[in-house]
Amino acid sequence: MYPESMDLATPGRPKRTAFLLSQLGAVASSRFADRTREIGLTPSDAGVIRLLGRAPGLSQRRLADRLGAVPSRVVSLIDSLQERGLVERVRSSTDRRNYELHLTDAGKRVLRELRGIAEQHEAEILAPLTTEQVTQLGDLLVQLANGHGLDRELHRDVGRERGGAADLTADPGPEPAIGPR
């Protein structure tokens, strides 16, 4: 399962790397949730807004597929965003059975705000590192994400939010300087 070159028993090799990654991930997720809560959003709200900003016109079904979530959970999430005036459902011109999802002007403003929040968040998390270390870390994390088949644009954490729904968090920031997500 792992490359032969990866000898976990090598003397001097840092131990508990996965544990430290988990701790940092938990801290980063918690702090991001705090930041989104300050503007009245959950991380799931932020993730959907970000995805719709990058792919306007997604149907609810395609959005659910993209998120790996049960369609009924996505419907309630979109209902909430629509009630707050951030997302609108528009009947598809190509398939009248479907609705396309679009950010409203208010949703686009929130997306811009989320990008600023994400930039500030990333700067805070990476503050202890030099620019060179940030680049190196980014490259290594992309390699790990690819090696584990992760979607680098979307965080799926099943079972933690909304009574067992997938955590639909996505990075709302601009394309990062440390590599694609």
Question: Explain this structure to me?
Answer:
With 181 residues, this protein is mainly alpha-helical. It has a single domain, classed as Orthogonal Bundle (Arc Repressor Mutant, subunit A). The chain is built from 6 helices and 5 strands; from the N terminus they run H-H-E-H-H-E-E-H-H-E-E. Helix 2 crosses helix 5. The radius of gyration is 18 Å and the shape is elongated. The two termini are 24 Å apart.
Question: Which topology does CATH recognise?
Answer: Arc Repressor Mutant, subunit A
Category from helices, strands and their pairing? mainly alpha
Gross morphology = elongated
Largest sheet: 3 strands, antiparallel
CATH level-four homologous superfamily name: Winged helix-like DNA-binding domain superfamily/Winged helix DNA-binding domain
- Tell me what the CATH architecture is: Orthogonal Bundle
Distance between the termini: 24 Å
Count the E strands. Answer: 5
What share of residues is helical? 40-55%
| H/E element sequence | HHEHHEEHHEE
Count of DSSP H/I helices: 6
Mean pLDDT: 82
The residue ranges in which pLDDT falls below 50 over 5 or more consecutive positions are 157-181
Strand content: 5-15%
CATH class: Mainly Alpha
Which helices and strands occur, and which strands form pairs?
Elements: H1 17-38, H2 43-54, E1 58-59, H3 60-67, H4 71-83, E2 87-91, E3 99-103, H5 105-126, H6 131-147, E4 157-161, E5 165-167
Antiparallel strand pairs: 1-3, 2-3, 4-5
Helix pairs in contact: 1-5, 2-5, 3-4
